[in-house]
Specification:
Length: about 260
């Protein structure tokens, strides 16, 4: 007869641990978020700062947006630093992490959020589009992880990669993009094995997230397909990032945050 076990009782001290006020849980830690000048990357960077982390804002060319993101972080009483880099160039990636290490002396969290989103069908995909998709969405996260690994190893840190539902389902209108994001799924598993036990590596696969300026048809189409009948919010993705940062017994996994789209 199988032995039944009761769920462990959550103690008051444990509840207090999970209920800590913002600005305390990541105090003393340093995060680097790629593509953090705009959109989801910026929302994630701000949330990490709200939780107490100092944050390196990576950007490619959006100088004003990156400086505004740093200003938001500094208003929260945290340190922020904007560093420009072309993540399709390994030399730029090395410089990015060298500058971050020089500025802060440590790294605890790497969020690989920077990506492009290029439409391409089986007919229209060109070599240029293929290379641009794979370079930005797959090559860059790998070499960022490679550069960050020594720093993260010293702090028992974590890497969180961004894939998306295109990497799980495959979108015929975005062939190169889907392949690049599917690569991120396997990259996450390989890195989790290679960097364990010092560094945990996980990924998030968002569904459609409503952002200002996005074509309204994106949300309309997604609502028809998602079980929860709505698109997501940037804050919900930031919540997922924070969950994985704190989940010390999770590695090599893909957390799908898509309102049931992949069902």
């Amino acid at each position: 007869m199988p032995v039944q076990r009761e769920c462990a009782t959550v103690s008051g001290s444990t509840m207090m641990e999970y209920g800590r006020k913002s600005g305390e849980s990541l105090q003393g830690q340093v995060a680097l978020v790629t593509g953090a000048a705009k959109r989801l990357g910026r929302a994630v960077a701000q949330r990490l700062a709200e939780e107490g982390a100092d944050v390196v804002i990576h950007y490619r060319s959006s100088v004003a947006d990156a400086q505004a993101a740093v200003a938001e972080i500094e208003k929260l009483g945290r340190r922020g630093k904007a560093i420009a880099a072309d993540l399709t160039r390994v030399a730029d990636i090395k410089r990015l992490f060298d500058e971050a290490a020089k500025q802060y002396g440590r790294l605890d969290i790497l969020v690989n959020c920077a990506a492009n989103f290029l439409p391409s069908s089986i007919i229209s995909t060109t070599e240029e589009v293929w290379d641009a998709s794979l370079d930005a969405n797959l090559k860059a996260p790998f070499f960022c992880a490679q550069a960050a690994a020594p720093l993260l190893g010293r702090s028992n840190g974590t890497i969180i990669n961004f894939t998306d539902t295109g990497g799980l389902l495959g979108w015929p209108g975005y062939v190169a993009h889907s392949v690049s994001k599917a690569g991120v799924v396997l990259l996450t598993k390989v890195l989790a094995k290679a960097l364990a036990p010092e560094v945990r590596v996980n990924a998030i696969a968002p569904g459609t997230i409503t952002m200002p300026g996005d074509p309204p048809e994106w949300e309309t189409d997604f609502i028809k397909l998602a079980a929860l009948r709505r698109s997501g919010k940037p804050s919900e993705i930031a919540d997922a990032v924070l969950f994985l940062v704190h989940s010390k017994f999770i590695t090599g996994q893909v957390l799908v945050v898509d309102g049931g789209r992949t069902l």
